[in-house]
Each structure stands twice: as C-alpha cells, then as structure tokens.
Design brief:
338 residues, alpha/beta, three-stranded antiparallel sheet, 17% strand, disordered N terminus
Length: 338
C-alpha cells in the first residue's frame, strides 16, 4: 500500500479515537435531549480574544474541559489575538459562520470595542450571549522589590501626583484598565505614564521584569506570583473586598468614593443567526459544565466569583445588554460617545 495512504488511514483512525474518548464522557441527560441530529460533526471552537495564559484563556480552557465531559463533544480553544481584543471581537461579529461551530468566550470589554472602536462595522448585539460564566474585579498589583517596595496604593498614587509621569502603569488601551487610571488621575491629580499591553497577563509579566511599576489584572493572572512573594495586590476596583484578597483595600475605601468599580464579566456568545436548536444545545452544555462542583471549585481557587443576579438570570442576553447600556452611559458622560 502507498505510504501516504497508510499515514492518511492512521491519521483518520487517531482522530476517530480522539472523538470516541470524548464521547465516552459522562454525558448529561438534559444536554443529550437537546442534541440536534446533525450537530456537531466536528470540533467546536471556543474563541478567546486575548493571549494564552491570561485569566480569560484559563477560564475558557477549564470550561472547555468540563463541557467536553458534559456533552461528549470535542472542544478546541483558539486564541485569536491582536488589537487588544479587537481582532477577535471583529472575527466573531463579522467573520465567524453562525453555524454553532464557533463560540466566543468573552468579557464585557467587547462592549467598549463595539461602541468605541468598531466604527459602525459591527455592534455587540451581533453576538448573542448564551451563558454567564463568572466575574472578577480589576486589581492593582506592585512589585515586592524596587523603589516602591512596601508602599500602599495611596502612597504610590501620591508619588504620581508629586512627580507626574514618573510612575509607570500597565494598561490595555481603550478598556477598563485605561478608564480606571483615568478615574484615579481625575480624583487625585496624579499623572501616570501609561504603558500599553494586549492584556492583563503581559502587564503582570512586565511588572516582574521591572518594565512597569504598577500592573492591573485579575487574581488568576497574578496569584502564583503573590504566593511566591514576587508581587503584592494593593487595591481593588470593586464595591467591597473579596474573600481571597480580604487584606487588600478597595479604591473606594481609600478615597471615600463609589465610582471605582470595574469588574470583568465573563460570558459565552455565538454569532447572530446561529440556528436556535444549536444555540440551545450549546447553552445547555455550558450550563451543565457550570453546575459541575469540580469546575466551580477550580474557578473559586482562581479568585473568580459568581454574580448572583447573573447566575439566576432567566434571560442572560437581555440582562447583559442592560449592563452594556449602563456602560454606554459612562462613555457618554466622559465624552467618548455623543
């Protein structure tokens, strides 16, 4: 037999074995009831718009593993990065086929991209939310070494006020990373040197390398470095302290305010026009995975929390769109939108 034909047969056999192994998972009966006759016949892609290793990437990979367990389907996580999320968001809204084989695992930063950077080419309503995953407050972290060693957020911010442009802070342009810095500057008179990155993870890496003085990110992105005493969390952009960072004050505590609230909301979407039966099946698989105690425990270890209102939502699309409109109010108020 031709060697190329032998390799082709072996490759097909290995692929079939891979699907068979996934199919042998403990499939949820509730999910099985919704499975369309002709779907899926190939792997489903979970698209992540930020780099590998970040909080969203970690979230998606853990989720994919448990969705495979609940459905027997093969899930591939693909990082479509660039433009601080814009490349992936645009692909999902305008390039991905609405056939159920592409699911976006996103955060609410997509709303800002749609309203401020898409220039009318697409809207966040071109993506249909099918499941809420979890949430996370944006956190400022500093190094345990260097010129700001042992300083609080308030002390570092004061230096940025006394010596404008000398404190380097990592941002993701056109996102809550930048908006939080803007709010801090507006409230305190400080002036930071903003250093742009594609996501929170790269900013934390830059902090470790001494390229910035303050990074912003989410617990899963820096937890290991806190445990290793490399960095320390110094302030939370949340309404209250979290159980896993109970010794870290919020910006609102520090400045007696209510304005510093920037939470990441992670959720899954499909392109608008995805067939209803496939959308329902994909949503059921996600919901089954998100009820798995093992997955919930893994997320909690990473410091992620679950917004009760969104967990109990009976119309996640409408509830998330309501939050998007609330964010729009901020853009109008700050002159970003007319």
């Amino acid at each position: 037999m031709n060697p190329k034909k032998i390799l082709s047969i072996l490759g097909a056999g290995i692929m079939a074995l891979g699907f068979a192994c996934v199919a042998s998972a403990q499939i949820s009966p509730q999910v099985a009831k919704l499975k369309p006759k002709d779907f899926p016949t190939q792997s489903i892609e979970y698209t992540v718009v930020y780099p590998a290793g970040g909080a969203l990437d970690i979230t998606a990979r853990l989720l994919a593993k448990h969705v495979e367990k609940a459905t027997g389907d093969k899930i591939l996580v693909n990082n479509r990065t660039g433009g601080a999320g814009m490349v992936g968001h645009t692909y999902l809204a305008t390039g991905a086929k609405p056939d159920g084989y592409t699911v976006g695992v996103l955060v609410n930063l997509v709303w800002g991209d749609a309203m401020l950077r898409a220039n009318g080419r697409w809207a966040y309503t071109d993506l249909e939310p099918i499941a809420y995953i979890n949430s996370d407050p944006l956190t400022w972290v500093a190094s345990t070494e260097g010129p700001y060693k042992g300083m609080s957020a308030k002390q570092i911010i004061q230096i940025a006020r006394d010596k404008p442009g000398t404190v380097r802070v990592a941002i993701v342009p056109g996102s809550m990373w930048e908006y939080l810095v803007e709010q801090v500057e507006g409230a305190t008179g400080a002036k930071f040197l903003r250093v742009p990155f594609q996501g929170g993870g790269p900013g934390v890496t830059a902090l470790l390398g001494g390229s910035v003085d303050v990074a912003q990110g989410f617990y899963s992105e820096f937890r290991g470095y806190v445990d290793a005493n490399k960095i320390v969390p110094i302030a939370l952009a949340s309404e209250q302290r979290t159980t896993y960072l109970k010794d870290t004050p919020t910006f609102n505590e520090i400045y007696g305010s209510k304005q510093f609230v920037w939470n990441i909301i992670r959720f899954a979407v499909v392109p608008k026009g995805t067939p209803a039966d496939r959308k329902a099946y994909l949503a059921a698989g996600l919901q089954a995975a998100l009820k798995d105690p093992e997955l919930l425990a893994e997320y909690q270890k990473l410091g992620m929390y679950f917004d009760p209102a969104l967990v109990k939502s009976t119309n996640i699309g409408a509830d998330l769109n309501a939050l998007a409109l609330k964010e729009r109010e901020f853009y109008v108020k700050t002159g970003r939108l007319k």
